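Researcher: Here's a chain I'd like modeled. Treat it as a single chain, no partners, no ligands.
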Amino acid sequence: MPGTAVPLFAAPGTAVPLSGVPGGASAVTARPRAGGLDASGAGAVRPAAQPAPPSAGGARRCRVPAPFTLAYTAVLAVTSYVTAHAGPALVHALHQGSSTDVAHLVRTPVLVLLASALWVAGGFASPFTLGFLVVLTALERRVGGARTAVVFLLGHVLATLATEVPVGLAVLTGGLPGSSLHRLDYGISFGVAASVGALAGLLRPWLRLPLLAGFGAMLLQDLVAYTDPLTNWGHLIALAIGVATWPRLRNWERAHRLAAG
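Model: Modeled as a single isolated chain. C-alpha cells:
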C-alpha cells in the first residue's frame, strides 16, 4: 500500500513485501549472491575467491642443476666399477680397444676419441674424478650442458691429437720404435684440464688467478717429474685450450643467463 517501506537489505530467505511496487508480486525471497553482501547485509562486497597460481619456485626446485655432468659421472662410475671388478684380461682389452694411440687414431679416430673418454685413469677415486665433478658442474651452471660438453671435447680431442701426432711422425722418421704406435692412452684428464682453464675465465680475478696458478703449478710439477711427459704436455695444452675459449665462453654465459630469465 502507499507509504509502506520496502527494506533495502534482507537476510537470506526473508520474504520482502512488494505490494507497493506497481506490477510486482506480493513477496520475493531474498537470496545471497556469490561475492556479494555478507550475511548481516551490511558488510562490504567480497570478491569471489580465486585459486592461487602454482608456485614457480616449486618447479625450479625440481630441476636437476647439472644434468650433463651428473649423467656423465654416472657413466664413469659404471666403467670404474667394471675396471675394479672385472678380470685383468678383460679390463686390459677394454682399455686397449679404447686407447687413442696412433694405430687406433688412424683406423677408427671417432670411435676411440669418444670411447677413451669413458674411462678414468687411476679409477674412480682419482683426483681427476673430483675435479671433473666440481669443475664441470660449475661450468655447466654458467653456460649450459651442451656448451660444457663442447669445451670438454675440445680439450680432450685437440690435446690428444697434439700429443699423438708427433709420436706418429717420430716413428715415421725413426726417432721412436714402432711399439710407440700402440701406447696406451685413455681417460678424462685432458677434458678436465680444458674445463678448468675455461671456468677460470668466468670467475672473478681473486678466484681466477689462484685457480690458474695452483692448477698450472701442479701440471708443471708433473712435467718436471718426467714420469709421463706426453700426458703431462697434453694437460698443459688442454689448459691452454680452455683459456683460449674465454671470449666465446663469456658470450655463451650471457646468452645462458638471458635464456634462463
